[in-house]
Amino acid sequence: MIVVKNSVILLVVAVLAGCSSSIPVRKESASLNLQYTIEKKGGMVDEVIAIMEPTFSAPNNVKGNNGVSFYNNFATRYKQKLAKALSTGFWELFSAKGFKTKGPFTDFDGLPYLEKKSIYLASIPYVDINFVKESVSKKCGTGYCWEEGYLNVTGEFTYKIIEPLTGQIFLTRRVSLSGLNPRKAYTRQWAANTSGGKSFGLIGSAIGAAYEATKKKPTELIDNTDKVLGEVISDFYQQAMKKLDAYISKEELLSYKEDVMKLKGLKRF
Q1: How far apart are CA 52 and CA 108, in angstroms?
Q2: What is the SS3 assignment for 109?
Q3: How many other CB atoms are there within 10 angstroms of residue 214's CB atom?
Q4: Which end of the chain lies in a sparser environment, N or C, as judged by fewer CB atoms within 10 Å?
Q5: Sequence-separated (6 or more) residues with CB below 8 Å from residue 99
Q6: What distance separates the 2 farthest-apart alpha carbons in the chain?
Q7: How far is residue 186's CA from residue 244's CA, in Å, rounded to a whole number?
Q8: What is the pLDDT of residues 44-103, one digit of tens each?
């Protein structure tokens, strides 16, 4: 009887040791494209536009965002890169349209009075972006599980043009992020114990594990969530800059000059 018990123990140890080896995961990294080519349009003018860094809203609780958290990945790895790219993009846009530029600034309220007075107008961007998972499917195979679906972007990109001394808003433009780009398919696979969660005791578990071990397992798992997130961010940037390039008009901004000068001439106590 002792021999049988020892044999069972050896069987359990051998099977569990064989099942403990995890399947390697190939993670596909993101490659961001945060460059936008702007053509020069018209001659230079003396008016100065202040560029403010964009403000990002907190994410909404969108249904289907359990599991892979694309927004958390964005916030920790790519949010600052996108903010910097948008600030640079605004600077290049206004410069290409003939304006002098200052910034980007992080704290507009902290600017000195004389600097605010010397600035013609200020650009204040605001980004409300959500990464929404659609058609999500979660399954398990032999020794691994996976989540797959589509990643889409919703929200709104807004920028305001204001007179910096008074905060008077002269222009507001909103760019809807919904439908700017086709959704992207993603897959995340990971090694997992797929015994089904049933408990049959030590011997039963060993036999079940031995049976599972006879099934064919993939030699490699795939996780392309980072790559897909990078593609979505890059697409958003390209489309947003394209829209802004079309919306920002040198003639329209210069048409506010008389009213801007009146506001700057007001006495303040």
Answers
A1: 7
A2: helix
A3: 7
A4: C
A5: 44, 45, 47, 48, 49, 120, 250, 253
A6: 101
A7: 29
A8: 999 999 999 999 987 654 444 456 789 889 999 999 999 999 999 999 999 999 999 998
What are the CA-CA distances from residue 231 to residues 31, 100, 155, 235 (Å)?
Answer: 7, 32, 17, 6
Whether the CB-CB separation of 92 and 39 falls below 8 Å is answered with: no
Alpha-carbon distance values, 73 to 69, 148, 244, 265 (Å): 7, 17, 26, 47
Cα–Cα distance measured from residue 49 to residue 164, given in angstroms and rounded to the nearest whole number: 10
Q: Between the CA of residue 140 and those of 144, 182, 187, 195, what are the distances in Å?
A: 6, 28, 13, 10
- What are the tens digits of pLDDT across the range 119-132? 999 999 999 988 88
The alpha carbon of residue 261 and the mean position of all alpha carbons in its chain are separated, in whole angstroms, by: 39
- Cα 48 to Cα 85: distance, rounded to the nearest angstrom: 20
